[in-house]
Amino acid sequence: MNLEKHAKIFQTASQLAELLRACPEYTRYITARERLLQDPVNKRIFMELRQQQLALAEEPGQPELRELDAKQRGMDDLLMSVALNPVVNDFLNAEYNFGRIIEHIGEIFDPVLPYDDLEDEDVDELLGWLETGDKRAPNESTYLN
After folding, report:
1. What is the pTM of this model?
2. Distance between alpha carbon 124 and the CA centroid of its chain, in Å?
3. What would the pLDDT profile of 104-120 be if each residue is shown by its tens digit?
């Protein structure tokens, strides 16, 4: 690939990165992140929250209601304590606000990136062989560059 041919694209991407670094949402996010990382107790609370969020997200489609209720109550309790915790709450709000900007930027690129051409099983297969480090595509005899 001729990088000089695409210099304007890379230059524009660099300008976008600089604009992101200069926006107040990014500054708040970085400040709140540093504050959280320097506070071991609140960092542990935040990590527990993320762990529970991931566990709930990975629940199968039809879990036992009693089990879900207990997990949801635990999550609700943790969320309530986080809401009253200024360090963790500030970080979560800053993360959300900056994340919304990144999400909107991603939406701009959605029409450009034709990912929807692939079926879900094709994407899973593609990700699987990329994760294993296999440079050969399935059913291909040549290596990718």
Report:
1. 0.64
2. 18
3. 999 998 888 766 555 66
Q: Cβ(94)–Cβ(31) under 8 Å? A: yes
Residue of higher predicted confidence among 13 and 80: 13
Q: Is CATH 3.30.497.10 the classification given to domain 3-113?
A: no
Domain parsing of the chain, residue ranges: 3-113, 115-145
The candidate with the shortest Cα–Cα distance to 91, out of 39, 53, 54, is 39
Residue 23: both structure tokens together: 């926006």
Nearest Cα to Cα of residue 86 among 50, 13, 32, 26: 32
DSSP 139: T
pLDDT classification of 3: cutoffs 50, 70, 90: confident
